[in-house]
Amino acid sequence: MLTAEKNERLTRVGPGTPMGELLRRYWWPIATHDMATRVPVKRRLLGEDLVLYRDGSGTVGLLAEQCPHRRAALWLGCTEDVGLRCGYHGWRFDADGRCLEQPGEPADSTFKDRIRATSYPVQELGGLVFAYLGPQPAPELPRYDLFVWDDAWRDIGHAYPRPQADGRCRAFPRDRSHRHSAAGAAAHGGRHAVRLPQPAYRGRTHPRKRSAIAERQGL
């Protein structure tokens, strides 16, 4: 049985924790592609509260939830043609965290050039939005076959495991299909998990399998 100290070391994933620093070296699925819209949404990953959005140019951005100005929640803001505008004082940030506009400041002010929101890289692949919260340079997001097959349908599901009183998430004991989701939910703070897409050919045989069948039949 693990000691209380080892349990804390293995289960805490927030910033500055040993497991948190390790897990931040990987890309994580944070949302499905249809969640990244012009309406900002709250996400939680590795103990950090974040906001995900897609601006008018189609760029997907992931910022820390709190605006660096007055700590207002950016998910209450609105998207623009470029970037996300805070709903409190109207500061606008792009996907890299740069402050693009500060209403109320003089036209020649350079104050906005000294302000940055915390931002993280995101990539869309296989119907999911992946985020990287670790140090730069970020590793390449793996192009696993399930993500890049052209001749396949992908079923993407959501699982919401019930967190415990201490805020942690336990794996489902009997359902193997949810164990992966439960692990993802732990990374999301126990609030949300995205199951990796599985190919569903719906009556069609994948070309690789058709080729193998034809070879066995001497066709």
Describe the structure.
18% of the residues lie in helices and 22% in strands. It has 219 residues and is an alpha+beta fold. β6 and β7 form a beta hairpin.
Question: How would you summarize the topology of this molecule?
Answer:
Elements: H1 4-11, H2 18-23, E1 27-32, E2 41-45, E3 48-54, E4 60-64, E5 78-79, E6 84-85, E7 92-93, E8 99-101, E9 122-125, E10 128-132, H3 145-148, E11 154-155, E12 158-159, H4 176-187, E13 193-194, E14 198-199, H5 207-216
Antiparallel strand pairs: 1-10, 2-3, 3-4, 5-6, 6-7, 7-8, 9-10, 11-14, 12-13
Summed up:
With 219 residues, the protein is of the alpha+beta class. It has helices spanning 4-11, 18-23, 145-148, 176-187, 207-216; strands at 27-32, 41-45, 48-54, 60-64, 78-79, 84-85, 92-93, 99-101, 122-125, 128-132, 154-155, 158-159, 193-194, 198-199. Helix content is 18%, strand content 22%.
What is the assigned CATH homologous superfamily of the largest domain?
A: Rieske [2Fe-2S] iron-sulphur domain
Which sequence of strands runs across the widest sheet? 5-6-7-8
DSSP summary: helix tally: 5
**What's the overall average pLDDT, rounded?**
80
**Largest sheet: number of strands, sense, barrel closure:** 4 strands, antiparallel
- Please provide the count of β strands: 14
Helix content: 10-25%
The parts where pLDDT drops under 50 for at least 5 residues are 171-206
- Strand/helix succession: HHEEEEEEEEEEHEEHEEH
Q: Estimate what percentage of residues fall within beta strands.
A: 15-25%
Class inferred from helices and paired strands: alpha+beta
Number of domains: 2
Radius of gyration: 21 Å
> How does CATH name the architecture of the largest domain?
3-layer Sandwich
Specify the CATH class of the largest domain.
Mainly Beta
What's the assembly state of these chains?
single chain
Distance between the termini: 58 Å
